Amino acid sequence: MNFFRILLKRWWILLILIPLILFAARKPILKSLGNFLVYEKLPETSIDVLFVLSGNPYERANFAFQLYNQHEIDKIVCTGIIIPNNLKAAGYTDHEGMLTSIRLKELGIDSGKVMLLEIGKNTWEEINAIKKYVVDNQLENFAITSSSFHTRRIHQTVKRVFRRNKMPYAIFPAPVESFNPDIWWQDEAGLITVNNEYLKMLYYRLKY
Fold first, then answer.
1. Domains and CATH numbers, the chain
2. I need a labelling partner for 67 at 20 to 30 A (CA). Which of 35, 109, 151, 169 fits?
3. Has this prediction a pTM greater than 0.90?
Protein backbone atom coordinates (compact mmCIF):
# COMPACT_ATOMS: atom_id res chain seq x y z
CA MET A 1 0.00 0.00 0.00
CA ASN A 2 2.83 2.37 0.92
CA PHE A 3 4.53 1.51 -2.37
CA PHE A 4 1.49 2.60 -4.40
CA ARG A 5 1.18 5.82 -2.41
CA ILE A 6 4.83 6.67 -3.09
CA LEU A 7 4.39 5.82 -6.77
CA LEU A 8 1.26 7.97 -7.00
CA LYS A 9 3.07 10.91 -5.39
CA ARG A 10 5.92 10.59 -7.88
CA TRP A 11 3.50 10.52 -10.79
CA TRP A 12 1.92 13.73 -9.55
CA ILE A 13 5.36 15.31 -9.30
CA LEU A 14 6.14 14.25 -12.87
CA LEU A 15 2.81 15.56 -14.12
CA ILE A 16 3.67 18.95 -12.64
CA LEU A 17 7.36 18.98 -13.63
CA ILE A 18 6.99 17.91 -17.27
CA PRO A 19 4.76 20.85 -18.32
CA LEU A 20 7.05 23.25 -16.42
CA ILE A 21 10.13 21.87 -18.18
CA LEU A 22 8.44 22.05 -21.57
CA PHE A 23 7.32 25.62 -20.92
CA ALA A 24 10.82 26.65 -19.83
CA ALA A 25 12.35 25.03 -22.93
CA ARG A 26 9.64 26.13 -25.35
CA LYS A 27 11.81 28.55 -27.33
CA PRO A 28 14.62 26.11 -28.26
CA ILE A 29 12.03 23.38 -28.93
CA LEU A 30 9.99 25.61 -31.24
CA LYS A 31 13.13 26.88 -32.96
CA SER A 32 14.24 23.26 -33.54
CA LEU A 33 10.86 22.45 -35.10
CA GLY A 34 11.44 25.24 -37.60
CA ASN A 35 15.08 24.32 -38.22
CA PHE A 36 14.14 20.73 -39.01
CA LEU A 37 12.10 21.91 -41.99
CA VAL A 38 15.18 23.52 -43.56
CA TYR A 39 17.27 21.18 -45.74
CA GLU A 40 20.35 22.18 -47.70
CA LYS A 41 22.26 19.98 -50.14
CA LEU A 42 25.20 21.67 -51.82
CA PRO A 43 26.20 20.92 -55.43
CA GLU A 44 29.10 18.61 -56.19
CA THR A 45 29.85 20.24 -59.57
CA SER A 46 28.53 23.01 -61.78
CA ILE A 47 24.74 23.09 -62.16
CA ASP A 48 23.07 22.22 -65.47
CA VAL A 49 19.68 23.66 -64.50
CA LEU A 50 18.37 25.48 -61.44
CA PHE A 51 14.63 24.91 -60.92
CA VAL A 52 12.77 27.62 -59.00
CA LEU A 53 9.57 26.19 -57.56
CA SER A 54 6.34 28.20 -57.62
CA GLY A 55 5.09 30.16 -54.64
CA ASN A 56 6.42 33.51 -53.40
CA PRO A 57 8.01 34.39 -56.76
CA TYR A 58 9.61 37.62 -55.54
CA GLU A 59 11.46 36.01 -52.63
CA ARG A 60 12.54 32.92 -54.57
CA ALA A 61 13.56 34.82 -57.71
CA ASN A 62 15.75 37.17 -55.67
CA PHE A 63 17.56 34.21 -54.13
CA ALA A 64 17.83 32.41 -57.49
CA PHE A 65 19.55 35.53 -58.84
CA GLN A 66 22.10 35.32 -56.01
CA LEU A 67 22.71 31.64 -56.76
CA TYR A 68 23.14 32.42 -60.46
CA ASN A 69 25.93 34.86 -59.59
CA GLN A 70 27.57 32.50 -57.08
CA HIS A 71 27.52 29.21 -59.01
CA GLU A 72 28.06 28.00 -62.54
CA ILE A 73 24.43 27.67 -63.67
CA ASP A 74 23.60 27.10 -67.33
CA LYS A 75 19.86 27.72 -67.16
CA ILE A 76 17.07 28.66 -64.74
CA VAL A 77 13.67 26.98 -65.11
CA CYS A 78 10.61 28.42 -63.33
CA THR A 79 7.85 25.94 -62.51
CA GLY A 80 4.17 26.13 -61.58
CA ILE A 81 0.91 27.24 -63.15
CA ILE A 82 -1.12 28.65 -60.24
CA ILE A 83 -2.39 32.20 -60.75
CA PRO A 84 -2.38 34.12 -57.43
CA ASN A 85 -5.89 35.18 -56.37
CA ASN A 86 -4.87 38.84 -56.09
CA LEU A 87 -3.88 38.84 -59.76
CA LYS A 88 -7.08 37.03 -60.75
CA ALA A 89 -9.10 39.71 -58.98
CA ALA A 90 -7.29 42.39 -61.01
CA GLY A 91 -7.88 40.53 -64.27
CA TYR A 92 -4.31 39.30 -64.80
CA THR A 93 -3.46 35.79 -66.00
CA ASP A 94 0.25 35.61 -65.08
CA HIS A 95 0.92 32.43 -63.11
CA GLU A 96 3.64 32.07 -60.47
CA GLY A 97 6.18 30.57 -62.86
CA MET A 98 5.75 33.57 -65.16
CA LEU A 99 6.09 35.99 -62.24
CA THR A 100 9.33 34.32 -61.17
CA SER A 101 10.75 34.55 -64.69
CA ILE A 102 9.72 38.21 -65.00
CA ARG A 103 11.51 39.06 -61.76
CA LEU A 104 14.67 37.18 -62.84
CA LYS A 105 14.80 39.14 -66.09
CA GLU A 106 14.22 42.40 -64.20
CA LEU A 107 17.27 41.54 -62.08
CA GLY A 108 19.38 41.28 -65.22
CA ILE A 109 19.51 37.61 -66.17
CA ASP A 110 19.47 37.15 -69.94
CA SER A 111 16.07 35.99 -71.20
CA GLY A 112 17.78 33.14 -73.06
CA LYS A 113 18.88 31.72 -69.71
CA VAL A 114 15.37 31.72 -68.20
CA MET A 115 12.56 29.41 -69.28
CA LEU A 116 9.17 28.22 -68.04
CA LEU A 117 8.06 24.72 -67.15
CA GLU A 118 4.33 25.36 -67.11
CA ILE A 119 3.32 22.31 -65.11
CA GLY A 120 2.43 21.76 -61.49
CA LYS A 121 -0.07 22.96 -58.91
CA ASN A 122 1.79 21.45 -55.95
CA THR A 123 5.23 20.19 -54.98
CA TRP A 124 4.53 16.59 -55.99
CA GLU A 125 3.45 17.60 -59.51
CA GLU A 126 6.38 19.99 -59.89
CA ILE A 127 9.00 17.42 -58.85
CA ASN A 128 7.51 14.89 -61.27
CA ALA A 129 7.64 17.51 -64.03
CA ILE A 130 11.26 18.21 -63.11
CA LYS A 131 12.08 14.50 -63.37
CA LYS A 132 10.59 14.33 -66.87
CA TYR A 133 12.53 17.44 -67.91
CA VAL A 134 15.78 16.07 -66.47
CA VAL A 135 15.36 12.69 -68.19
CA ASP A 136 14.15 14.11 -71.52
CA ASN A 137 17.05 16.58 -71.66
CA GLN A 138 19.62 14.03 -70.41
CA LEU A 139 20.88 16.32 -67.67
CA GLU A 140 23.79 15.16 -65.53
CA ASN A 141 22.65 17.10 -62.46
CA PHE A 142 20.17 19.71 -61.32
CA ALA A 143 19.37 22.02 -58.41
CA ILE A 144 16.16 23.24 -56.79
CA THR A 145 15.47 26.33 -54.76
CA SER A 146 12.40 27.24 -52.75
CA SER A 147 11.52 28.92 -49.46
CA SER A 148 13.65 27.51 -46.64
CA PHE A 149 10.83 25.88 -44.63
CA HIS A 150 9.71 24.09 -47.81
CA THR A 151 13.03 22.35 -48.48
CA ARG A 152 12.72 19.32 -46.16
CA ARG A 153 9.56 18.24 -47.98
CA ILE A 154 11.22 18.90 -51.33
CA HIS A 155 14.12 16.63 -50.39
CA GLN A 156 11.77 13.86 -49.28
CA THR A 157 9.76 14.20 -52.51
CA VAL A 158 12.85 14.17 -54.74
CA LYS A 159 14.05 10.97 -53.06
CA ARG A 160 10.73 9.27 -53.81
CA VAL A 161 10.30 10.55 -57.36
CA PHE A 162 13.92 9.93 -58.40
CA ARG A 163 14.40 6.62 -56.58
CA ARG A 164 14.96 4.82 -59.92
CA ASN A 165 16.84 7.68 -61.56
CA LYS A 166 19.51 8.54 -59.03
CA MET A 167 21.68 11.50 -59.98
CA PRO A 168 23.48 14.40 -58.27
CA TYR A 169 21.22 17.22 -57.20
CA ALA A 170 21.37 20.23 -54.92
CA ILE A 171 18.77 21.99 -52.79
CA PHE A 172 19.15 25.63 -51.83
CA PRO A 173 16.85 27.04 -49.09
CA ALA A 174 15.83 30.61 -49.92
CA PRO A 175 15.87 32.92 -46.87
CA VAL A 176 12.45 33.84 -45.51
CA GLU A 177 11.66 37.53 -45.85
CA SER A 178 8.09 37.65 -44.51
CA PHE A 179 8.95 36.65 -40.91
CA ASN A 180 11.91 35.90 -38.64
CA PRO A 181 12.53 32.12 -38.92
CA ASP A 182 14.26 32.03 -35.52
CA ILE A 183 11.05 33.16 -33.78
CA TRP A 184 8.50 31.93 -36.31
CA TRP A 185 5.90 31.20 -33.59
CA GLN A 186 5.60 34.93 -32.83
CA ASP A 187 4.30 35.74 -36.32
CA GLU A 188 1.04 34.67 -37.94
CA ALA A 189 2.77 33.94 -41.26
CA GLY A 190 5.37 31.83 -39.45
CA LEU A 191 2.72 29.85 -37.56
CA ILE A 192 0.80 29.14 -40.75
CA THR A 193 3.95 28.16 -42.67
CA VAL A 194 5.31 25.73 -40.08
CA ASN A 195 1.94 24.15 -39.29
CA ASN A 196 1.17 23.72 -42.99
CA GLU A 197 4.56 22.15 -43.72
CA TYR A 198 4.23 19.51 -41.00
CA LEU A 199 0.69 18.70 -42.14
CA LYS A 200 1.83 18.46 -45.76
CA MET A 201 4.78 16.24 -44.83
CA LEU A 202 2.36 13.88 -43.10
CA TYR A 203 -0.05 14.04 -46.04
CA TYR A 204 2.74 13.27 -48.54
CA ARG A 205 3.95 10.39 -46.39
CA LEU A 206 0.47 8.85 -46.33
CA LYS A 207 -0.46 9.53 -49.97
CA TYR A 208 2.80 9.02 -51.86
1. 39-178 (3.40.50.620)
2. 35
3. no
